[in-house]
Amino acid sequence: MKPESKKPVEGEIIEQTNGASHSKSVEIRTVEDVMEDSFIRYSMSVIVDRALPDVRDGMKPVHRRIVYVMDKMGIGPTAKTVKSAQIVGEVMGKYHPHGDSSIYDAMVRMAQDWVERYPLVQGQGNFGSMDGDPPAAMRYTEAKMTRVSESLLADIDKETVDFRDTYDSTRQEPIVLPAKLPNLLLNGQVGIAVGMATNIPTHNLGEVVDATVTLIDNPEATLDDLMKCIKGPDFPTGAVVYGGAPMRQAYATGRGSVTIRAVANIEETKRGRHQIIVSEMPYGVNKATLIEKIADLVHEKKITAISALRDESARGNVRVVIELKKDSYPKKVLNQLYKLTALQTNFHYNMLALVPSADDATRLQPRVLGLHDILNEFIKHRRQVVRRRTEYELRKAKERAHILEGYKIALDNIDEVIRIIRASKTQDEAEKALIEKFSLSVIQAKAILAMQLRRLTGLEREAIENELAELMKKIAYFEKVLADENEILRIIKEELLEIKDKYGDDRCSKIINTEVGKFSDEELIPEEDTVVLLTTENYIKRTLASDYRRQNRGGKGKRGMTTKEEDVIDQLVPAGTHDWLLFFTNRGRVFRLKAYEVPAASLAAKGVAAVNLLQLQPEEKITSIINLAKDVNVDEGYLFMATTKGTVKKTAIADYSNIRTNGLIAINLDEGDELRWIKQTTGKNDVIISTSAGQAVRFSEEECRPMGRAARGVRGVRLRTDDSVVGMDIVTSADQKLLVMSANGFGKVTKVANFPSHRRGGVGVKAAVVTAKTGPIVAVQTLEKDAIEAIMISQNGQTIRVSLDDIPALGRTTQGVRVMRINDGDTVSSMGIIRDTDEGEK
Question: Which domains occur in the chain, in start order?
Answer without folding.
Answer: 52-179 (3.90.199.10), 263-342 (3.30.1360.40), 384-503 (1.10.268.10), 531-841 (2.120.10.90)
